[in-house]
Amino acid sequence: MGILNVTPDSFSDGGQFAAPAAAIAHGRDLAAQGAHLVDVGGESTRPGATRISAEDEMARVLPVVEALAADGIAVSVDTMRAEVAAEAVRAGATLVNDVSGGLADPQMLAVVADLGCDYVAMHWRAHSATMQDEARYDDVVAEVTAELVARRDAALAAGIDADRLVLDPGIGFSKTWDQNWTLLTHLDVVTALGHRVLVGASRKRFLGEALGGRDPVGRDAATAAISAWCGLHGVWAVRTHEVVSQLDAIAVAERLRRP
After folding, report:
1. N or C, which terminus of the chain has less Cβ within 10 Å?
2. What are the CA-CA distances from residue 53 to residues 43, 79, 124, 233 (Å)?
């Protein structure tokens, strides 16, 4: 899943693709490099980010989704708002990637059920402005898993088909650096829930910490190591800024998994 941030303030590439023409060109490039999905997001969810209006989010996202879908590119929309999700699917998106797992907008699950599209429910505790205040766990693996199961059950109860549901442990969201590493070393607990799993670790701060404070653009090799780890553990998809080396890492992991 290639990341396409149509935002001025995302942590790694904020502002690079804020103009629709630049965003569309980058989305085409991600697909050409081998991304199976291009994930278009108009609202930053980096730690400390403030929310924008639904109108601004749609103005950023919809022209890009429509143009890429018209090219035959598989597109997902990264949004916490049901109205944005609905309009993006009408514009051609095939998957709604909701980092709040339906908690930010009480209409989201019912809307997605009506849309009949795939849905990613991520582990989430709070909006970006305060989410790191919620990084309190006695057992991060058990608690994240239990909270994901609760969102899974809510999605199923709302009418989302089980085979359309994807779970995401929410690396970097309401997690400390050490908690991120602990979750990654126990991915088998999440995959054991029986649904497809998405992991988004690309260029995140905990990787920079492991590399002595390296800037986000210097974290792609570390991201590839995580992608290989995910491949070894049967993860369905990784969400990444850079595509080619991630595909290489996953190809190696898949070869190692063969008997």
Report:
1. C
2. 9, 12, 20, 38
Nearest to 202, CA basis, from 88, 72, 60, 45: 45
Task: Name the nearest CA neighbour of 81 among 125, 126, 115, 43.
Answer: 43
CA distance 65 to 204: 25
Calpha distance 68→88 (Å, rounded): 12
**C-alpha span between 39 and 130 (Å, rounded):** 24
Where does the pLDDT of residue 249 fall: very low under 50, low under 70, confident under 90, or very high at 90 and above?
Answer: very high
Asked whether the beta carbons of 39 and 62 are under 8 A apart, the reply is: no
Query: At 54, which amino acid appears?
Result: A
Among candidate residues 204, 214, 255, 258, the one labeled active-site is: 204
pLDDT tens digits for range 229-245: 999 999 999 999 999 99
pTM (predicted TM-score): 0.94
Q: Is the pLDDT at 14 greater than 70, yes or no?
A: no
CA distances in angstroms from 34 to 7, 63, 87, 111, listed in the order given:
23, 22, 26, 30
- Contact between residue 60 and residue 53 where contact means Cβ atoms under 8 Å apart: no
Helices 177-185 and 140-158, axial angle in degrees (round to 10): 70
Spot the catalytic one: 239, 255, 257, 258.
Answer: 239
**Whether residue 175 lies in the annotated active site:** no
Distance CA(122)–CA(1), nearest Å, equals 15
- Quick check: is 239 catalytic? yes
